[in-house]
Amino acid sequence: MGRPLLMAFYGDDFTGSTDAMEVLEGQGLRTVLFIRPPTKEWLETFSNLPCIGVAGTARAMSPEAMESELAPVLEQLKLLGPKILHYKMCSTADSSPDIGSIGKVVEIGKRLYPDQGAVPVLVAAPHLRRYTAFGNHFADYRGDVYRLDRHPSMSRHPVTPMKEADLLVHFAEQTSGTLSLYSVTDLEQSLDRRQTRWADLLGSEKNAVLMDALNEEHIRSIGELVGSSAEHASLFVVGSSGFSQAFGSYWRDRHGIEKRAEPELERMQTLVLSGSCSPLTDIQIRTGVENGFVKIKADVMALLNERDNEGACDRLLEEASRAWQEGRSLILYTAEGSDDVSIGVLHDEMRRRGLSISNTGPIIGDRLGRIGKLLIRKLGIKRVVLAGGDTSGFASLSLGIEALELLQRTAPGAPLCRAHSRDSSIDGLQIALKGGQLGQPDYFVRVASGRKEAE
């Protein structure tokens, strides 16, 4: 493959995975995102590929499912010999002891790398306006920064609401091991003192070392500290795309890598499939409608009871097809923000059936993906947006996507990609995966227009 494999990452959801790919590409590191771990033979078809990723769904998994499904994937990625094996988590830290447990991930990583000391954990991603200071985490919402337990959206997440902003406390509830902190005061010390403090914490008997970061300079320092450690022995790390930024910067300087030019894209009629409950996604839907999109609300009960409500799904497809044939871009969505009454109705019905609320993403995502695939085949759709951190991953699986490559950076963390698939109707599809908290208010309009992030 030419140069060695620098990084292999597993994304805990699909939107987070494209975020990590985008950041690495932005540093000039070509990255291919796979749906399943690639074999060495498959990788050899891509020349000089420094970074790869696997788009996963572990954010919606129980610890038991992580053990049976995630651990073998990480082991397969380790066998490819990357300098860094990165479990890419969301920069909003949404996790719990029962769902998407970061503590469980750390324990798996410690088992895979028995000679490694503490597992580095970086949740901050300043390029996404997500910050950690003295272990406490903060995130932007519409231009203002909130402590995570007071964040208007994440404190009310339907599956993993964030009730604790102190990440040392939050993660300690997810593991029997202990954590230490590499703080902003450590990052502000002289180079020698930074390195000495880092070596002490990395070599300790703690399970993990949480790293603060507030700005780009902190991220560069983290890249040098952790990247240089990985030159001596491969490392397992857990964190957001802040780690992608840190390592990308370190390797770009070390290997003299240049950034690539992005193609100019034309305006194109666009299909949006949204399973997001985020208030920001609601704003993006309304902005899309103000700019000519047609919105159609999917009945979540009809999606849940798919076999018993084929007529409702048929009517949805008919209405969507009619709008598309009129030349309008289209938004199929399940919720209007976090206060939508359909969320509570769906959760009540799932509890009545004995189903976990964590199954919401898999069910809704799978149904939206199947509806999207029918529309893509019928109408020849070439550009799609999947909105929702959990649902978009399962929708991608239903579409039959096997790999993604970055096409254009449209918004931080939510790039437009090109899909690879054995299904000819999906292969070459231009597709963006957008987490609920990401993108500008006019994000859907930007994707349809083909406008780059900087424009």
TrEMBL record:
One of its GO terms (molecular function) is kinase activity. Gene3D superfamilies: Four-carbon acid sugar kinase, nucleotide binding domain, Putative sugar-binding, N-terminal domain. Keywords: ATP-binding, Carbohydrate metabolism, Kinase, Nucleotide-binding, Transferase. Residues 8-246 form the Four-carbon acid sugar kinase N-terminal domain. Pfam families: NBD_C, SBD_N. InterPro entries: 4-carb_acid_sugar_kinase_N (IPR010737), 4-carb_acid_sugar_kinase_N_sf (IPR037051), NBD_C (IPR031475), NBD_C_sf (IPR042213). Residues 271-444 form the Four-carbon acid sugar kinase nucleotide binding domain. Belongs to the four-carbon acid sugar kinase family. This is Four-carbon acid sugar kinase family protein. It comes from Cohnella thailandensis.
